[in-house]
Prior knowledge:
Layout: H1 14-17, H2 19-30, H3 34-47, H4 51-62, H5 66-87, H6 90-105, H7 113-127, H8 129-139, H9 145-159, H10 173-185, H11 190-200, H12 202-215, H13 221-240, E1 248-252, H14 257-262, E2 265-266, H15 274-277, H16 296-304, E3 310-313, H17 331-334, E4 337-342, E5 347-351
Parallel strand pairs: 1-2, 1-3
Antiparallel strand pairs: 3-5, 4-5
Helix pairs in contact: 2-3, 2-4, 3-4, 3-5, 4-5, 4-9, 7-8, 8-9, 8-10, 8-11, 9-10
Amino acid sequence: xxxxxxxxxxxxxxxxxxxxxxxxxxxxxxxxxxxxxxxxxxxxxxxxxxxxxxxxxxxxxxxxxxxxxxxxxxxxxxxxxxxxxxxxxxxxxxxxxxxxxxxxxxxxxxxxxxxxxxxxxxxxxxxxxxxxxxxxxxxxxxxxxxxxxxxxxxxxxxxxxxxxxxxxxxxxxxxxxxxxxxxxxxxxxxxxxxxxxxxxxxxxxxxxxxxxxxxxxxxxxxxxxxxxxxxxxxxxxxxxxxxxxxxxxxxxxxxxxxxxxxxxxxxxxxxxxxxxxxxxxxxxxxxxxxxxxxxxxxxxxxxxxxxxxxxxxxxxxxxxxxxxxxxxxxxxxxxxxxxxxxxxxxxxxxxxxxxx
Length: 356
């Protein structure tokens, strides 16, 4: 069956990591420290380029001190650019952060992205109804207008790319949470309290049945893939023999959890197959059309020059059109490996002894 990457459930990724500098930037702007607010937003930009929306929101709270705000924003960027240049990583940064992400954002994977956006936004707001109600209460007051603008400025960052994954909504979560905390604090009356309690029950009603399903072993696709990764990791450690977790590893597909579960060292600078196929992980389990072919052949040639002790294929069983032997640059390289075992969704290969 088609599965989705479990990062949509536990996203320890750039969207989540931006929350801390986002909150810090707005707090410093509210405290009339525009330069340091800009610095916090600049640090956020090094984590996630969507921090430009955070900077724009900070301008509301720091007004009219926009020059120190912008100056502070540029400091981390200048330091980051200098470090990338000194280490020779600047071209790779441009390639991975700007070229690839631009191609990714320009290619929605659903047929009607506008309807998808409206539906997912409504679902997210419904799930967070307590926040929406509390924030709306503050927005109707004079003091709440800046907080409304904060949310409206950040929302385009959710829209960017027309995917509306749950983790993208982290960009508007601070604006809603802070406003809701104030709005609910001024709420009065039993009816209002009951309304809030009902909305807080929405997550329990929505996901309560899921916990019962998990208790009887009915796993969601995300958990099933995670369990598959754990099983594949055990096979890989066994196949590595005495090397164990000291072996080098390459994973075809998008299964970063396998690196964690095995503890093995990456054999190449490629941690998944997206740069080699041009097909993003949000669709490569079911679709095979690349969003870009720039640099993909060179990446495959570079992979073929590596010699990982363990090779794990976490994609071909889901989408044979993106199997490794589909690419002529990888066929001779793949011939140096023999299958050591497989799970429902993963094939584990070990490098043949006579080809080490």
